[in-house]
Specification:
Blueprint: E1 6-9, H1 12-18, H2 26-39, E2 44-48, E3 61-62, E4 67-68, H3 71-84, E5 92-94, H4 95-107, H5 112-116, H6 122-127
Parallel strand pairs: 1-2
Antiparallel strand pairs: 2-5, 3-4
Bound molecules: iron/sulfur cluster.
Protein name: DUF1284 domain-containing protein
Pfam families: DUF1284
Organism: Gallibacter intestinalis
């Protein structure tokens, strides 16, 4: 049986790193928890710059267009993450590989705000530690 590849917006790697159980709605927050649980199994992911498995339950997703209502901003974040990580759009790798690169190239050198400093959640991420269980 082939393992399903999870399509993940590149900048969501950072959202996951600092997730503290808060989000756009209760449904979204519960969904986020279930995705993080899934990622703990270290699945194969594909880095994308459009709506993904996390966006599916977000109230900011415009369903008819399957597009975020801040599409330009979040897509820019996705592209910056991919560039900072030295990866490519649509690249396939494991979640653990991706998260290690994000940590080494963005989070540990404190470059996160260069990418998503304008996000509404910036202050929360700035004051939070990386979820320890993600750091293996
Ligand atoms: S729809 Fe937009 S705000 Fe919601 S999770 Fe996706 S990228 Fe983030």
């Amino acid at each position: 049986m082939t393992e399903e590849i999870i399509k993940l917006r590149a900048h969501h790697g950072m959202c996951i790193a600092y997730f503290q159980g808060q989000g756009y709605s209760e449904i979204f927050t519960e969904h986020m928890k279930s995705i993080i649980k899934l990622l703990k199994e270290n699945p194969i992911i594909q880095l994308i710059t459009r709506a993904d498995i996390i966006c599916e339950k977000c109230p900011n997703l415009i369903p008819k267009r399957m597009k975020c209502n801040t599409a330009a901003f979040v897509q820019e974040c996705d592209k910056k993450v991919i560039t900072f990580c030295g990866l490519e759009e649509n690249q396939i790798l494991t979640w653990n590989e991706f998260f290690k690169i994000i940590c080494e190239r963005i989070l540990f050198p404190e470059k996160r705000a260069l990418i998503c400093g304008q996000c509404q959640w910036n202050n929360l991420c700035a004051l939070s530690d990386i979820n320890p269980y993600l750091l293996k």
